């Protein structure tokens, strides 16, 4: 193979598909490599998909994309071993002509997205593992080596959409391997239930959907998050914690998930379900400070491979899609000026990304990962227990004078964290959030 | 209240998944060692597919057939040289039906 492409996109996840679609629909000659049997077969996500970012790529996606439910209700739970304290937000305003958020099943969604990429004119090569970047004497990336016989392919630019654990960028020294404290390991199960049972249990009708996100003792003092998302005929249920915390505590991810399933607040929601898949995946959690160099001579990095994930708002695929689209638009601009794909010219990608919500949001929360990671036992165990104690004391009627209850609650907080600790946690949280 | 804990073995969970195993060509190899490092030993607990196990000589062994290719072991052990990590050949390995 000595065919020369305008661009090679490594990976057919959200960022790779966004990049390949944008490039191909502008007439560039695009080769996309995917190691799975079909696009989506290696991809794992919760998954919630944000319409706005996909509309910017495929405006009429609602016509034929496989969408599960549009979200009308979101629940944030703080859990201890027997309770949850929740903030629920539900609004009929989310029942709109063009809903804002959908649950999706990635293997199905990615197949659809990939079909759009092929229809736009890109060549999609599945069952092909990219093994190495090919560089010229000056270090410029000029192609990709694959595991197919004689499988070197060449292009003016390579878009690394290889995911959080991608090999090419780290092996070529373009980015560091993610550190255990900047990635979470999430495990997930697909629980199948009849559509009407899901409707009854979550109080939703038709395609309306509900999602729950939970922190607390379910993560056993690790920095982590549990989630439960309603699909049409299934529930995606999972939990993720930092890899560094798993290594330190030696907790078993599957046992953690099983314990969450047995929590008295979760168990009735999934009762009687049939589990049809167990999946695991890494999630970038390092935030702004973990973003690697995004461009160089003949290459750009997008999506999870670039750590573009907003852990606080648990947004990832929209940052992936946006970074893929923006990288493609930068490449198209450089090409339209007849410019070579040099580091200097591809810097345009970063300039454009800096102007987008992707980098602005990550910058806003740049200090949150460090704060949550170093104080995980307070934020994920002590405070959830205290919150439950306070709520239960407030609600239980047992003849204790209210003033004594309040004093006891205040004392419990001070005992757990000291006055200084409480003030310091509040101030650090406020500063990191700002 | 008591919680009836139904313990599901990881092997039974993996049984639901679809794999195309590349027989005789494991994509992850544990380098020979006398005594496992702390991180390598940790994999016997934290690998979500329980691919890593201690043998009776106290060394860590891997059976990668049920691997979900999450990369946790790579993050913890590649840099230190405990393991050699690659993706499976194109088309092989786990094939998520839902993901």
UniProtKB/TrEMBL annotation, chain A:
The keyword Transferase does not apply. The keyword Oxidoreductase applies. Keywords: FAD, Flavoprotein, Oxidoreductase. Its cofactor is FAD. Part of an electron transfer system. Belongs to the ETF-QO/FixC family. This is Protein FixC. It comes from Mesorhizobium wenxiniae.
TrEMBL record, chain B:
Pfam families: Fer4_ETF_QO. InterPro entries: 4Fe4S_Fe-S-bd, 4Fe4S_Fe_S_CS, ETF-QO/FixX_C, Fd_FixX. The keyword Cytoplasm does not apply. Could be a 3Fe-4S cluster-containing protein. It comes from Mesorhizobium wenxiniae. It comes from the Bacteria. This is Ferredoxin-like protein. To ferredoxins from P.putida and C.tartarivorum, ferredoxin I from A.vinelandii, ferredoxin II from D.desulfuricans. GO terms for molecular function: iron ion binding; iron-sulfur cluster binding. Residues 58-88 form the 4Fe-4S ferredoxin-type domain. The keyword Ribosomal protein does not apply. Keywords: Electron transport, Iron, Iron-sulfur, Metal-binding, Nitrogen fixation, Transport.
